[in-house]
Amino acid sequence: MPGLLLRTLRGENLPTRPVWLMRQAGRYLPEYRALRERKGGFLALVYDTDAAAEITLQPIRRFGFDGAILFSDILIVPYAMGQELEFLAGEGPHLSPRLVDASLDSLHAVPERLTPIYETVSKVRASLGSERTLLGFAGSPWTVATYMVAGEGSRDQHDARAMAYQDRAGFQAIVDAITATTITYLAGQIAAGAEAVQLFDSWAGSLAPSEFERWVIAPNAAIVAALKARFPEIPVIGFPKGAGEKLVAYARETKVDALGLDETIDPLWAARVLPGDLPVQGNLDPLLLLAGGDELDARACAILDAFAERPHVFNLGHGIGQHTPIGHVERLLSVVRNWRK
């Protein structure tokens, strides 16, 4: 029988809630820090398939989460499209050439850069029991485009937003190319053993409503449709961070199987306005998990109670912080696992 997470993503409203945490394989874990110290930088870890599989499994061994999410990065897609990628200490990722300076046509695709990621998925699937769900992922085209245009992350995505207004056709070509590569990439992950996939749109909240329709909803709808045509049983989770009230249109028009909610969303509002049979995921504030205490318990229970009448995957509103104490994660898991609807 499928595990608790996969059943929930397929629409079952179960009395026990599955739980996994975004960025659950990462720097807050001492075993991750020890492995990274031995192996080297972040990108080296991603492309060392044994190390990447081990990192993916570390939080499963420690906490028994219901889902294991692939250890990788959303910028693997532009890397495979021909941009160079490096992670600089204290600065984060850098892509070159920046598409604010260079044309899309100047890039030469390197599709073999995707192959090791599929190998990692296969290795994790071989080591993961049937009761755990293996999650693949990719960045959504808008968020990936913001990095490709600017060459790095930014507070307001100025370069990408400006290009989207000033050069509609050029920016559309970038988004279309990302969309096509993302479909190939996620299909490869699924073929290798991923049982569900998530689309991360970390910068969706920076767009005006009409731009959101064009650059977030339309490409994500295309990805979902393409994946469903090939893998109709594989759930797709959409996570448009910062979308706010635009979540309703996103859910309706993209046809994702489940919707991730960030910490700014009122669960009572979401429970009221989103389709009643749509699984939702989230949405504890990662900073509350960092802080801990009685408020952590109370807020977790409030989220669980708000979504009691629909399929719900407990998660954070975004990624777990690197300084989060292990004991706080254990406390949260106790609350979630002891709750019953």
In what range is the share of β-strand residues?
A: 5-15%
C-alpha-based Rg, rounded: 19 Å
Tell me the count of domains.
Answer: 1
CATH structural fold name: TIM Barrel
Sheet having the most strands:
7 strands, parallel
Tell me the total number of β-strands.
Answer: 9
CATH class: Alpha Beta
The backbone outline, from C-alpha atoms, is globular
- Gap between N and C termini: 22 Å
**CATH architecture title:** Alpha-Beta Barrel
Strand order of the largest sheet: 1-4-5-6-7-8-9
Helix content: 40-55%
What does this structure look like?
The chain has about 350 residues and is of the alpha/beta class. It has one domain: TIM Barrel (Alpha-Beta Barrel), CATH 3.20.20.210. The chain is about 50% helix and about 15% strand. It is built from 15 helices and 9 strands. The strands form 2 sheets. It has a 7-stranded parallel sheet with strand order 1-4-5-6-7-8-9. Helix 4 (about 50-65) runs parallel beside helix 6, helix 6 packs parallel to helix 9 (about 170-190) and helix 7 (about 140-150) packs across helix 8 (about 160-165). The longest helix is centred in the middle third of the chain and has 25 residues, at about 170-190. The radius of gyration is 19 Å and the shape is globular. The two termini are about 20 Å apart. The model has no long low-confidence stretch (mean pLDDT about 95).
